[in-house]
Write a structure and sequence with these properties.
There is one protein chain. With 258 residues, the protein is α/β, with parallel strands linked by helices. It is 46% helix and 13% strand. A seven-stranded parallel beta sheet has the order 3-2-1-4-5-6-7, sandwiched between helices. Helix 1 links the parallel strand 1 and strand 2. Helix 1 packs across helix 6, helix 3 runs parallel beside helix 4 and helix 4 packs parallel to helix 5. It is globular, with a radius of gyration of 18 Å.
Length: 258
């Protein structure tokens, strides 16, 4: 049994959470260009308005919100229901990244990371699920990271938040496939964004946000569950997962020069 894709995004109702920059912004631009109806959410309303101006007046909704605020998410979803009657695709891209190692571990930063990167998507999914289950249709796409595959330096809170997203998506897929609702687990490698600009080390296989958006939308079109890229990097990290820990840690220390 294979889950459904979206062969044509024209006219599809898409809620992008985290649309104001990076991968989310690139996805929004691409979807607006092909005629999708796009609800744009993030905390930065000015950037959302700029994006909305790329399409016609009935094509976009600007719904500023903070993913850690359940009330704001609920109000945003109610606005979509009131205007369009539902959502065909929830694309959750929003996330925070604070580089953390054991010698500078900050519990406040860790809690904020888990709240935004794990509980944020869970809040959004909980909102859209009832209508999707009722219709036996819809798509849930969540951007995680290859950092969730296994432990990596400077990801003491970010990595666990993304590892949990992998587990969450796997369980969603298992539950929702028989119900006709598709789940897309998105695991990017290094993408040139405001978040990765914080890194002070060389990022292998770095790609642009536009390239990431192309990979994501292509995967959703085909109905793929496991959307990971760039393949030359993500496949290598998948391989590392199956190695014994002594070999894994030796390779990481040898090739990650931080």
């Amino acid at each position: 049994m294979k889950q459904k894709g979206i062969p044509n995004f024209s006219g599809q109702r898409v809620w992008i959470i985290g649309a104001s920059s990076g991968i989310g912004e690139a996805c929004a631009q691409a979807l607006i260009k092909v005629g999708a109806k796009v609800a744009l959410s993030s905390r930065r309303v000015g950037r959302l308005n700029t994006l909305a101006a790329l399409g016609n007046t009935e094509q976009s909704l600007v719904l500023p919100l903070d993913v850690t605020d359940d009330g704001q998410l609920k109000n945003g979803y109610q606005s979509i229901l009131g205007t369009w009657g539902g959502v065909d695709l929830l694309l959750f891209v929003s996330g925070v990244y604070v580089p953390l190692r054991a010698d500078n571990f900050d519990m406040d930063a860790a809690e904020q990371t888990i709240d935004a990167n794990l509980l944020g998507p869970m809040r959004a999914v909980a909102l859209v699920l009832p209508e999707m289950l009722k219709a036996h249709a819809g798509h849930i796409a969540i951007v995680g990271s290859v950092a969730g595959y296994s432990g990596l330096p400077k990801a003491l809170a970010y990595g666990p938040s993304k590892a949990a997203i992998i587990n969450f998506c796997e369980t969603l897929y298992y539950d929702l496939l028989p119900q006709g609702v598709s789940v897309h687990m998105i695991s990017p490698g290094f993408v040139a964004t405001e978040a990765t600009a914080q890194n002070d080390f060389e990022m292998p296989a770095l790609i642009s946000a536009q390239e990431a958006a192309t990979e994501i939308l292509s995967g959703i079109e085909k109905g793929e569950f496991d959307i990971h890229f760039p393949k030359r990097f993500s496949r290598f990290l998948k391989f590392l997962r199956i190695l014994p820990y002594p070999i894994y840690f030796w390779i990481v220390r040898r090739f990650v020069k931080i």
